[in-house]
Design goal:
The chain is an alpha/beta fold and 168 residues long. The chain is built from eight helices and seven strands; from the N terminus they run E-H-H-H-E-H-E-H-E-H-E-E-E-H-H.
């Protein structure tokens, strides 16, 4: 099973963006993806909620989603059709990204530094490639293992489990 290739704008974020900066704590009891998407990165990049398009990619620095671990940012990203490339992410947010159906790659420093905010990207999460259409540079990263790609491609953990049970 493969994922679609994401084609869109790069939204570059710095290091150490906390999960509470991804979606503010006052929205912790909100679970509607359509509402959560309006609050994604409101404190860091308020324009994302109104301007991001399906196929766009968040490019984050080190320690992405640090701090408290909750699913809200990943629900919002999935609803927006966004992918994630980051320098580093701890195990809890990594697992939530996969479980919620948000494709991700981990980038090395050179890749992170070579891609600018606003660049047009073509990201193949299955192959682990990023084609920067703005600079014409290619970046090759390690993709997710095939079993995790299956979960993301199914739309997340719950959808994957339903498919494994015959679609019930």
């Amino acid at each position: 099973m493969t994922l679609q290739i994401y084609r869109g704008r790069c939204w570059k974020l710095p290091d150490d963006v906390s999960s509470d900066q991804l979606i503010a704590a006052q929205h912790v009891f909100e679970f509607s993806p359509d509402v959560l998407r309006k609050h994604l990165l409101h404190e860091v990049r308020p324009e994302i909620a109104g301007e991001a398009q399906p196929g766009d990619v968040l490019l984050a620095g080190e320690n992405f989603a640090l701090g408290s671990v909750h699913s809200h940012p990943f629900l919002a990203m999935k609803a927006m059709g966004m992918g994630l490339v980051c320098r580093s992410i701890s195990r809890g947010p990594y697992r939530l990204s996969v479980f919620m159906g948000v494709p991700l790659l981990t980038a090395d420093r050179d890749t992170y530094e070579a891609i600018a905010d606003g660049d047009r990207l073509e990201v193949d999460f299955t192959a682990g490639t990023i084609a920067d259409q703005t600079t014409r540079r290619q970046h090759i990263l390690e993709p997710l293992p095939p079993f995790l790609i299956e979960i993301v491609a199914a739309g997340g953990g719950l959808e994957h489990a339903r498919l494994q049970q015959g679609g019930r």
